[in-house]
Structure of ATP-binding cassette domain-containing protein:
Amino acid sequence: MRTSAISVSGLRKAYGSKTVLEGIDFDVAAGSVFSLLGPDGAGKTTTIDVLTTLLRADAGTVRVAGHDVATEPGRVRAVIGAMGRSAAVDELLSGRGNLRRMADLKGVRSDSRVVGRLLERFDLVESADSLAATYSAGMRRKLDLAMTLVGDPQVIFLDEPTTGLDPRGRRTVWGIVRELVAEGTTIFLTTRYLEEADQLADQVAVLDRGRLAARGTPEELKRRIPGTHVRFRFADLFELDAAARVLAGSVRQDEELTLRVPSDGESKSLLALLGRLDAHAINAREFSVHTPDLDDVFRADATAFTDRRAQEASVTLTG
Ligand SMILES: Nc1ncnc2c1ncn2[C@@H]1O[C@H](COP(=O)(O)OP(=O)(O)OP(=O)(O)O)[C@@H](O)[C@H]1O
């Protein structure tokens, strides 16, 4: 069994009377990618801030690379790299200057080969001596990530590392994350792109109202969601009603004028469905075959969240 690079137990954090983390537990195996997902304001950044020693938890135990963040913050800081949402890049220094400054800050000998290798790895050689102020958003993000890697940290925290990057920049970051993991580094990642978690993460956890609502491999989470289905969209409620009567086992979403019908998605099954609609002179505006992805997991959790809110509201109203 692999050792834990991050181990979190009973983590609680409140800002004044607002509780953000209500006691969360998880483990991240060394040399793996763990992705924390959650709607805006769910507490992802708060979690990262506690794990990286920037913020003190109210309760619980957090160990990173075997060190307790509350009692050994210095040891934790010595073995981690963290890239937050606001860039650590100094605009008045060049790319090379920023990397050198980071090496000094981390007490790593500012070996020009180390800096040179990072500039190469991130495709920043040509602009290495230009001021970071002249860099594009993507270049700045790459420089920020390069700075995170100075000193070869064992555990790397990336808070939305590809938000705002174009597809090429995103692929570069993904490639680097994969290389780091292959070298044995552990990555803790928050992202708003579910495809990113699907592509990179060994384990995913969904944070919802202070608790971990779902946890598992991307595959396991996707299996929790109803399987492949065909989605039909109709011109109006009249057609939707008629189709819902004809297609057994379908689930309607009135607002979107859509109907989901479980199906294996094979052409024979599609022809049978279309044939049944046609036999009743029902026309679908469009249809698509849909296999579950992490987006569905996320939406299902968000729906559960909204449902609970609605239940609570009705309890309050009637209570
Ligand atoms: N210093 C603070 N004081 C008071 N409330 C805070 C503070 N920092 C965060 N919060 C609140 O705590 C909640 C969780 O914030 P956090 O930034 O951890 O969420 P997040 O999941 O990272 O969301 P987002 O992606 O929107 O940044 C939010 O409601 C936020 O308003």
In short: Residues 294-318 form the longest helix (25 residues). The chain has two domains: 4-222, 229-290. Residues 15, 18, 20, 38, 40-46 surround adenosine-5'-triphosphate (CB under 6 Å). The longest strand covers residues 4-15.
